[in-house]
Amino acid sequence: MDLQEQRKAVGLGRSRADLIFDIFNMVLMAAIVVVIIYPLYFVLVASVSDPMAVHRGETFLRPVDVNFIGYQEIMKTRSIWAGYRNTVFYTLGGTVINIALTLTCAYALTKKDMPFRKLLSALIIFTMLFDGGMIPRYMIVRNIGIYDTVWAVILPRAVWVFCLMVARTFIEQTIPYDLYEAASVEGCSFARYFTLTIIPLSPALISILVLYYGVGHWNSYFDAMIYMQTRELYPLQLILREILITNLNQSATVGGADSAEAINEMLRKSESLKYAIVIVSSLPVLMLYPFLQRYFVKGIMIGAIKG
User: Fold this and answer.
1) What's 196's DSSP letter?
2) What share of the chain is helix, strand, coil (3-state, %, to 5)?
């Protein structure tokens, strides 16, 4: 056996077609990475560049006339730190409640001898297709006494049905039901089995649920806008929205006796503020992704296999 045949026998030989296919895959993956990363890079560059240079297309790869006007305008607002504090609380507290309710409900739906199991599953899935609407939800929030409280942001969306289906499918496919039957023979209760077996064996599931729910809470602003009147309870996204609207209104009212320099400065400030707000609101979530990224694809695949 010559050297080429030996290389092929141990899997080291590569045909020209294999090499072309590998190169094509690498080029395709590189192109996808650029398409995904470049918009964020552009926003970051634009947030520290002269807005006029951004409009002229001069910030394609690098910042031009670096300045931090947008960030300075955001940091001037005292309520920005209260918004960060509130959003962190809503994200952490809401995610803990989401995970607790989602896991317990999903675990109960995996119990084969649970009464009306299929009916309950059908009713839960029904809510994915048909929603009561904003007005009934608003009336419920007012009637149960949580309007204009922190619970108005956390409780109405305590369980996302998609995540519930992902959790149920994960438990059914990853943790054999025979394991529970063997544990029950030894006297292990259903609740004890959940605490000592299901949770320790589900780090991938918990991680992907934390990512889904955490990002949802961090980016949420509509519920706070509808259910809250106390400004001290506003989340970060609502504070940033107010800053942007206030700045745009100021820019619209500039004119008449105002000098051209003042008008240009206000417009530059408004444009820089738009990009800076995107960075300020997205940065904490972007810092979280690398720690949970390896579980992200697995979580997507779990939900796609079986509903």
Assistant:
1) I
2) 75, 0, 25
- What would the two tokens of residue 76 be? 């001037």
> What pLDDT does 101 receive?
93
| Domain spans in the chain, listed from the N-terminal domain onward | 1-67, 69-307
Closest residue by Cα to residue 230 from 140, 134, 138, 151: 151
Q: Report CA torsion sign: 223, 228, 99, 195.
A: negative
What stretch of H or E contains 79? helix 79-109
Give the integer Cα–Cα distance in Å for 118 and 253.
60
Dihedral over Cα of 23, 26, 29, 31: its sign: negative
pLDDT at 295: 64
Residue 47 burial (CB count, 10 A): 24
Which tokens hold the place of 116? 């009306």
pLDDT at 255: 52
Structure tokens at 305: 């296999």
| Fold held by 69-307 | MetI-like fold (1.10.3720)
Tens digits of residue pLDDT in 137-177:
889 999 998 998 999 989 888 898 888 988 888 888 888 87
Calpha distance 186→195 (Å, rounded): 16
Q: Shortest CA distance to 194 belongs to which of 115, 100, 130, 286? A: 100
Of 272, 284, 266, 282, the C-alpha closest to 48 is 272
CA 15 to CA 143: how far, in whole Å?
71
Separation CA 273–CA 72 (nearest Å): 9
Q: At what angle do helices 260-305 and 203-219 cross, to 10 degrees?
A: 150
